[in-house]
Amino acid sequence: MHQEDIVIVTLKVNGVERPLAVEPRRLLCDALREDLGLTGTNLGCEQGVCGSCTVLVDGESVRSCLMFAVQAGGCEITTVEGLASGETLHPLQAAFWEKQALQCGFCTPGFLMAGVELLRRNPEPDEAGVRAALAGNTCRCTGYEHIVDAVLAAADGAARERTFAEEPEVDVAAEVVAREGR
Ligand code: FES
Ligand code: FES
Q1: Ligand 2: distance of its center to the CA of 23 in Å?
Q2: Ligand 1 pocket check for 36: Cβ under 6 Å
Q3: How many other C-beta atoms are found inside a 10 Å radius of the C-beta of residue 46?
Q4: Do residues 16 and 32 make contact, with C-beta atoms less than 8 angstroms apart?
Q5: Pairing of strands 16-22, 60-63
Q6: What pLDDT was estimated at residue 31?
Q7: Does the structure show a pLDDT above 90 at 168?
Q8: I need a surface site. Which of 10, 19, 67, 146 has the fewest CB within 10 A?
C-alpha cells in the first residue's frame, strides 16, 4: 500500500470522534469492526442483501458493507454498541430480551438498528409497518414473529410512557382540601 493511497477520515461513532487512516476503498463495516474494534456490527452476505451489517448514519439505516468509510466522514454513526446507556438496555433491546426475539443473535444488531430507525420515523407502527421496515433484514433462526412482537412491544411501551408524561400531576392534598372544604 502506498502512502498516497491513504486518506484521513474522522468517523463520529456513538458520539465519539475517531480519526482513522484508511484506503479510500475501505468499507465502513471493516473500519468499524477491524479498525475501531466495534464487532457488534456483523457481516453476513457482504453484498447488501442480509441486513446484518446495518448501522445508522445520521439517523438513517445503512448497510455498512455497501458504504465506504470515507463517505461517512463527518456523519453521526450509531452502531449497536451505542444503543444501551451504561448497564441499561435501549427499550428495543429490552423488548428483544423480553420477547425472546433472538436465537443465535447474529442478525440481531441489524434488526435492532433497523427497528430503532423505524421507531424514530414512526413511533406507533402497526404490524404491517413493522414487517415492511424489517423486510430487508434476514434471520435464519426465529421465524420473525418474536422480532415483530418485540418492535411492537417497544412501540407500545414508549407510547404508554408518552401518555403518562402528558398527564398533569395531581395535587392530592389540594383535592382533599377542595372536597372537604378545609
Ligand atoms: S453483510 Fe451487509 S447486507 Fe449482508
Ligand atoms: S437469531 Fe440467528 S439469524 Fe437471527
Answers
A1: 32
A2: no
A3: 15
A4: no
A5: unpaired
A6: 98
A7: no
A8: 19
Output the domain CATH number for residue 62. Answer: 3.10.20.30
Residue 44 backbone dihedrals phi, psi, to 5 degrees: -105, -85
Whether ligand 1 lies within 6 angstroms of the CB of 49 is answered as yes
Chosen domain end from 82, 101, 124: 82
Pocket test for ligand 2, best of 49, 107, 145, 149 (most atoms within 8 A of CB): 107
Query: Is the model's pLDDT at 182 over the cut of 60?
Result: no
Q: What domain range is 182 assigned to? A: 84-182
Residue holding cell 448514519?
57
For 82-102, write each residue's pLDDT tens digit. 999 999 999 999 999 999 999
User: Is the predicted pLDDT of residue 137 greater than 70, yes or no?
Assistant: yes
- Kindly give, in sequence order, each residue whose CB lies less than 8 Å from that of residue 105, ignoring residues fewer than 6 positions away: none
Answer for the pair 64, 54: CB distance below 8 angstroms, yes or no: yes
3-state helix, strand, coil in the chain (%, to 5): 45, 15, 40
**Do the Cβ atoms of 92 and 31 come closer than 8 Å?**
no
* Residue 89 cell numbers, joined: 438496555
The owner of cell 428495543 is: 92
Query: Do residues 92 and 181 share a domain?
Result: yes
